[in-house]
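Tokens for Iron ABC transporter permease. Go.
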Amino acid sequence: MNHGTTTAVSRPGTPGTTVPSPATGASGGAAAGRKRAAWLLAAVVVLVLLAATSLAVGARGLPLGTVLEAFTRFDPANGDHAVVHARIPRTVLGLLAGGALGLAGAAMQGVARNPLADPGIMGVNAGAALAVVTGIYVFGIASFSGYIWFAFLGAAVAAVVVYLIASLGRDGATPVKLALAGAALSAGLFSLMNVILVSSQDTLDRFRFWQVGGVAGRDWSVVLPGLPFLAVGAAIVLLTGRILNSLALGDDIARGLGQRVGLTRALTALGIVLLCGTATALAGPIGFVGLVIPHAVRFLTGPDYRWILPFSLVLAPVLLLGADIIGRVVLLPGEVPAGIMTALIGAPVFVWLVRRGKGAGL
């Protein structure tokens, strides 16, 4: 027998249909894995270049050589070096918030088995927004470092309430019940928020700068408190690739494969809440990042969440940083917040992906 050749094996009950032999399947899987790894490396390179561009581009444009010099030979008296260092927190926040939203969006779509799932479906944005408005109106909070704790608490409580409501009944937290509970709670929370805003002009003036979403105006006092939450959330979600693959087959099949569906879904939801809540608290309710990126990623990875999650972690900051960079220069000397730019960029891209028909499949 020639062991170097591959053979076709007939599939029982389907005459004329063949599948690759095990040797062929292993070889094809290894080749696909190498191709995906190459794409992931290329995405990391693009992200690094975009981060460097973020440090150089703005109302005061700087050459990349000056950016490099600001790190290797920093001169406190050099104004260009000071500009570079002032842009570091903004760039780091774009990386962190983008990665968190992309990773959480991919996991959320897997948990809910809903291709339109994003932070809004679990009430994260609505809960965070209401909590921030309450903090401003009741406690007089006026700084981003104060918003973060209210936003995170509101996002976490809202997500837990959505999950508890969806868990009522015989079948537990099904995808349809999660979507309905999230939509209903979001509508109610936004209504309560609007009641406060229409009664207090001062609260509205303070809140609207956070509401549009963006990474401008943040410093290390805003970024650093969120790091532990983001690290724990990312660790949880990145370890759920196999779990999400099982859930994608349906709850009954997942149980047959030995998964404890309720527990695994709750654990994944915890990671999602940590990521979404912290990102929303840090940068405001930025839309489309967690929705568009997982769809786009599936063009490269297929339905395997072991690859979808790391790709989303890398490519989502590309979208957010790219939107932030464009927003800095499109209306000089002013700028457009990143939350607006992601919607302007993400909406047509998402429509194109859905029309192609491949991006919406889970």
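The CA atoms of residues 246 and 258 lie 9 Å apart.
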